[in-house]
Description:
Chain B is of the alpha/beta class. The longest helix of chain B is centred in the middle third of the chain and has 18 residues, at 193-210.
Amino acid sequence: MHPVVKLVAQRLALGMLLLLAASVLIFVGTQILPGDVAQSILGQSATPQSLANLRAELGLNEPAISRYFSWLFNALQGDLGKALSNGQDIATSMGSRLGNTLFLAISAAVVAVPLAILLGLIAVRYQGRWPDRVISTVTLATVSVPEFLLGYIAMFFLSVKFRVFPSLAAINDGMTFFEKLNSIALPVLVLVLVVLGHMMRMTRAAILNVMQSAYVETAELKGLRKFTIIARHALPNAIAPVVNVVMLNLAYLVVGVVVVEVVFVYPGMGQYLVDHVSKRDVPVVQACGLVFAAVYIGLNLVADVVSILANPRLRHPK
Amino acid sequence: MSDALLEVKGLKIEATAYPPGEAPRDITIVEGVGFTVEKGKVLGLIGESGAGKSTIGLSSMAYGRGGVRITGGEVFVNGRDILKVGPSGLRALRGREVTYVAQSAAAAFNPAKKLMDQVIEATLHHGLMGKEEAEARAISLFAQLGLPKPETIGNRYPHQVSGGQLQRVMTAMALCPKPDLVVFDEPTTALDVTTQIEVLAAIKRAIVETGVAALYITHDLAVVAQIADHILVLQGGKMVEYGTTDHIINTPAQAYTQALVSVRSIDHQEKTGGAPVLSVKGITARYRGTKFDVLKDVTVDLPEAQTLAIVGESGSGKSTLARVITGLLPPSKGEITFNGRTLAPEFENRTRDDLREVQMIYQMADVAMNPRQTVGTIIGRPLEFYFGLRGDAKKKRIQELLDEIEMGEGYIDRYPAELSGGQKQRVCIARALAAKPKMIICDEVTSALDPLVADGILKLLLNLQKIENVAYLFITHDLATVRAIADSIAVMYQGRVVRYGSKTEVLAPPFDDYTDLLLSSVPEMELGWLERTIANRKMEAAGN
Amino acid sequence: MRIPISALIGLFFTGLYFSIAIFADFISPYGVAEIVGDAWEGPSATHWLGTDTIGRDMLSRMIYGGQTTIFVATMATLISFGLGSIFGFFAAVKGGWVDQILSRLVDLMMSIPTLISALVVLTVMPVTLPILIVVMGILDSTRVFRLSRAVAVDITVMDYVEAARLRGERQLWIIFREILPNALSPLVAEMGLRFIFAVLFISTLSFLGLGVQPPMADWGGIVKENKEGLSFGITAALYPAFAIATLAISVNLVADWVLNRTTSLKGGRG
């Protein structure tokens, strides 16, 4: 078997294993920690009888291991259980929200990724001169402010003061694609600002690293144009680190989404999760945690696989 | 002037230094340098590190590495001043009239592209030939440079060929566009000595056959003597001496050049006999998790107050032997006797006296000293640790040791970063001596140093041996160093000792094949050595 | 020793914020939960920053909020550093299976985004200050572990550490005298970054209603309480933005300086 195929297969297997371990961790976090779920749900004033009833209903009297496996097997079959707070099927309520969240995250990524790479390239091209400094300073400022505050700042100026975009990102199936886009403009803007800083800085570092290597000097001493050097010699070697940067920040975006959805009251996974944390609705939190972890691990896996595929030493072994 | 291909006049090169905590300032790294290279001739640029030789070499392409700027003088290539031709003029010059061969070909090739694409890139870019013609030329150059499978080697990626081969491919890359001048920047420095001679011979043959002119940059006078018509000696960015190779090698006028030529002229009287302080018996060892023995049945003795040199190229296992003796790598077979006692295989199980009596000096003095400790702390710790010295007694002993390594007063409170390369190595020697050892393992202690500095270190070590009666296990790849310091020699090849005995025995014929190859590969500082050696080898090969 | 302007500014503002946090009781004009006026009064001589959603003095809220935020962040940072660096150094020096187990465990913890892990745990745990601090500290210690392990691994392969081992020095001496002094500068710089992260993190949790609980004030909570005002053009919710951003930038400037100053080893013991 070609070593690259083998390596990629190994990474995939490792990713699955990691996801499995993460599911254990999430389960342990909600079930075995000293806090008592039933107590948490009903509060301190609950009678012993109602506590016992709830425990039985939740299956808390069974050993943790068997509860874990029944949860896992159900989850694998798409059955995430029912919410404690309103008894609705979690998988169903999650479905449309997951779609909304992905719509928001992908829209942000479509703007942020090319922009970050472009700004990174500009910063490298004018390294140490004013375009580089301006870009670096602005991005430093955006990463020093938490997401929710960026959200409110954007809301205050763009929606309250100047009324460019709607302040709340209401979205429903009746809207056309462009209505939807207009509706999510502010949250997308905030998400872009949140990831842009990190992504641009890391892209800049990755490309600078490649541009300082000896083979770029060799190309320069061949009399090639700067553009040719970047396209032919720097780019093939910068792909892996840049993809890594992008994936890392998309994973970061997954977390940013949670907060931004709450700010703009957007009907997505993040809001769903936060709502049910306050309601101490354990099955919903578990399900959401599992989905977020899966996305996060998946993105990291993609980054891993791309860097394997882009490595000439692995692609063309001795 | 009519034949001058490259003419440099009054060259001045500056760079910006960024001293920590201070404002950046400009420093001059080359000043007042001028020379001429005629068509088809080779000029050697020689000097120690910091002499500015690479910087000067690159100025012939009007290129400044890092923040380096050419701020004065004129550089004429084919009659025009290339400092005035502008970016597009420079692009037309680079890769067409002047090409470059870097020290580390492994880093200078793009890892993501096939060799052939890179070799013919400049030729195609400048529109000098069609693709097929360029490839045919590249293949013929590969053959000329003695590369294996010249037709197909171009289809490989850089990491798929060895260092010596890559250096030759890089030479082919430089020669492919039929340039007027090639700049060779230490092209053989990173190679093993037996590989170096092959690459050197290949480069020389290529230069002669293509009739190209060259700037050959190196720190090794013996190497440049084989290849250059003229030599320019540099020190600290200034010219010291400039003349024909014959003149520089045989009748140097300047003291600095004379010192360079006569370096390694240490005369060391060989000692014999004596009871062994260290006996290595039948050592076989491998690294954890590997299936390959790095050392195979190694047996050597080191008599008291004498020097045993372990000689070999990279991969011979010589440094591994040091790790086994110090107890960092327990052997799978064999045992080590020291001072009459058997040493525990792991250093953790050795007594404090065993640890004290075997000391070590490393190749890179930079990383052998904790950068956050002063010289006083570095030398003082063994005194405190082994002998319980404190306060004034310790301070007095530290000063004695500093005197012994010829550094004198005023160094106790300095940090390693404030010392020169040679001084750092001296402090490491003092730290080893502080333990009053019976034996010191010296692992390539002079390899990272400039020749004159290395010479000083070797003389110091010989002196200290007489005073302190300490034995040295001296690991090196450099035969000149061996001649200077050894009493007995073990030649290692692929994990085995292939030749072992007193210095005179080992260095006298009849030789085994490997020792013969090794000895005859060391460049000697005389004209025509390379041709003679290669001719000898051909004759022997024909005779066999 | 010359301190660059940027670092001086950073030191000044960092010091200022910490002093305000420490002496909040003396500086603050009103009590944290004291209702002193109407809702959302504008800035005036008696209330420099105006009042909040139920008429509490905004300046006092900001000062006490800063105290809570900085306290929680500092404690969480100390915990994450304690845990992360001890285990990180331990893994690096020991190597072998100890290193393997610790590193894989940290990989696993890092495979779930920190905010998600915190939310999961806070679903079942009572939200009190000590629990918040411990949860944040443990979750963030994974990053400190990675850094200190990486730094220490780089140092343990140095010849001077080998020389100390071969001299027969004990493990503790090697960690404290050979490794720690050389690992200190990246760790101190990282401490600054972790502190900023902790400030952002606790603010986010409070904003989501899962951090500091009323009537205590903290910067994230102030945003949550006053966010409705934004639609009426009242900027009370944005004050914490300013406070958090300036604190973060000042600490960043100091961390940068520490890192730069000690990477150059000439002349001083960092």
